[in-house]
Design goal:
The protein has about 210 residues and is an alpha+beta fold. About 30% of the residues lie in helices and about 30% in strands. The chain has 4 helices and 9 strands. A 9-stranded antiparallel β-sheet has the order 6-5-4-3-2-1-9-8-7. Strand 5 and strand 6 form a beta hairpin. The longest helix has about 45 residues. The protein is rod-shaped and about 105 Å long.
């Protein structure tokens, strides 16, 4: 409509004549033509708004269905797996000298979607506090947003606690190989390769591939 009026004026024609492609001998009232065109424009705009409303409504419905489906999968445990194993680890003095063995009981759930983590019992027989009833651990891969870092935090209902175990540790995604240090310097490790790393006083970033298979 905005382009037709100036063009019709420049050619000395009525808008309706311009649309027809020829000049009529008896011109129809220009006001009537303009109103008809305005009505057509409003109808086209309304149709466009309805179409976009339908599209946006369909997209919103799909998003809601997706959220519901994802929630069902989460509740069904699709993105987690149970873990139940006992690992034998060596105990080392702060100087790195072997000082015996200890059993570590790992029992809980491991998540492999989003923030990869384990939640459950990580009871070190040589550290009595970690074996108490109600005490659980949370192990995080790529901890604190740093790729290759892993940490462990013990907690009782309503509170986190150290229980004498330093937070940073080395642990593979299958939980069967790990090394950690106690606050008194004692080292608990399944493999001697962890000992010099833990004795160094510096935590090295080690990337592990997270797998949902043992």
């Amino acid at each position: 409509m905005g382009l037709l009026e100036p063009l019709a004026d420049a050619l000395g024609l009525q808008v309706l004549d311009l649309l027809r492609g020829e000049e009529q001998e008896e011109a129809e009232p220009e006001v009537t033509v303009r109103r008809a065109l305005m009505l057509l424009v409003r109808q086209a705009r309304e149709k466009t708004r309805r179409r976009w409303g339908q599209i946006l409504g369909s997209l919103l419905a799909l998003v809601l269905v997706g959220f519901v489906f994802f929630g069902i999968l989460v509740r069904a445990g699709v993105f987690e797996r149970p873990v139940s194993l006992t690992v034998t680890a060596a105990v080392y003095t702060p100087e790195g000298v072997p000082a015996g063995e200890t059993a570590v009981t790992i029992d809980g759930e491991q998540w492999f979607l989003g923030d990869k983590s384990f939640v459950g019992r990580f009871a070190i027989e040589a550290v009595e506090a970690t074996c108490r009833e109600g005490v659980e651990a949370q192990i995080q891969w790529d901890a604190m947003g740093v790729e290759g870092w892993q940490d462990i935090q013990y907690y009782r209902p309503g509170e986190f606690c150290s229980l004498g175990v330093e937070r940073m540790l080395y642990i593979t995604e299958n939980l069967q190989s790990f090394g950690l240090k106690l606050e008194d310097g004692t080292i608990i490790a399944t493999d001697p390769v962890y000992v010099p790393l833990l004795m160094s006083g510096y935590y090295y970033s080690i990337h592990t591939t997270f797998s949902n298979q043992f």
